[in-house]
Amino acid sequence: MAAYGAQRLAAPRGTRLVLGNALVARLLLSAIHLGVDLRFGAGATGLRLEGGRVAAVETETGSLAATRGVVLATGGFSHDPQLRATLLPAGACDLSPVGAGSTGDGVRFGQSAGASLVRDNLHNAFWTPLSHYRRDDGSQGMFPHTVVDRGKPGIIAVNADGERFTSEAVSYHEFALAMLRAPRANPAFLLCDRRSLWQYGLGAVRPFALSLARHRAHGYLVEGRTLGELAAKLAIDAAGLERTVARYNADARTGVDTAFGIGSDAYQRFLGDLAQRPNPCMRPIETAPFYAIRLHPSDLGTAAGLLTDENARVLDGAGQPVPGLYACGNDMNSIFLGAYPGPGITLGPALTFGTLAARHLAGAATPA
Ligand SMILES: Cc1cc2nc3c(=O)[nH]c(=O)nc-3n(C[C@H](O)[C@H](O)[C@H](O)COP(=O)(O)OP(=O)(O)OC[C@H]3O[C@@H](n4cnc5c(N)ncnc54)[C@H](O)[C@@H]3O)c2cc1C
Hints:
Blueprint: H1 2-10, H2 19-33, E1 44-50, E2 53-59, E3 62-65, E4 70-72, H3 81-87, E5 93-94, H4 105-112, E6 125-134, E7 140-144, E8 155-158, H5 172-181, E9 188-193, H6 194-200, H7 213-217, E10 222-224, H8 227-234, H9 238-254, H10 266-271, E11 290-302, E12 313-315, E13 321-327, H11 347-361
Helix pairs in contact: 8-9
Flavin-adenine dinucleotide is lined by residues 43-44, 73-76, 95-98, 100-102, 105, 144, 300-301, 329-330, 343-348, 350.
């Protein structure tokens, strides 16, 4: 704490970097040591082609000649309304990447140079359920329900008919796709009893929260003394909800989810609580009061992007490389074509194809 205090005297944030911050900082340090010329506040506005080859990047502060080539890495098109409307399903929110960027610049620059945008992936974005909460300072926060609550025992998701529509413990991508597919599941409702709320939390409501007043006052967390009261407050079908919870509770006692097989594979059990037997993802919902929050489907980033080859070279409609043009990260079409086999499906390929693009630009041999 003392070290952090000392850092804050000199900087607007703590300077001990961990996780992604540390990774990027180390990369930056390498770039500085190698004398890389870094420009800030110089947003790219387009590419300049000479004789069919990408020869320069136009920026807000002038032209940058590309002696070897240009790597597009502007983060996909999550924040571009036009590309969203064309490529993503209606009714989904726009979460990510949080902050600026992802306005589709890289995709548009690529297309202006003749590149091909892949449109027919299994899914054109990676998806997550999301809830909107209010922070202490009044600003709106967005909570992506990736791995912390959905798979825990005694937490279920229902639609407006009070019916479950998927196993709650599948990947966030599969869960949100189920929300988009199921009737009356946007918004959906993540629901539990007092015991599970205390032990596992629910979205922005932390486990072991001594006071729920703030989240209740903002309407984020809805409370009911009975399931019927909760259903009435959420405008969902009370009889449907009571039927669903009765069946879930009976299944929880045997450990076999007869509706959706929650906890039936290693991924799902990992998101549960291994102390809970016989099924780490199930426990009867029976300790009043009952709680729920609203979930919306949102993208975590786009999967559709520019068609590339094994060296991250951008390809045109005929499958030929656009001379001098590369793409990686979300500007490159997902190598998983929008399927979610497991964690890291965006950052892993981003790092890998960034490296491959750099090796190719440097003229290094392609690894086998
Ligand atoms: C909450 C959340 C959790 C996630 N968790 C995971 C995870 O666990 N594992 C995983 O693999 N992925 C995860 N992802 C996805 C991952 O973060 C993104 O896929 C990844 O950051 C995309 O990298 P990128 O380099 O393509 O784009 P970004 O990281 O968005 O970087 C693009 C950069 O380009 C800049 N830029 C944009 N336009 C221009 C322009 N015209 N000129 C100059 N600069 C420009 C932007 O400002 C930005 O700095 C998560 C995403 C979210 C939102």
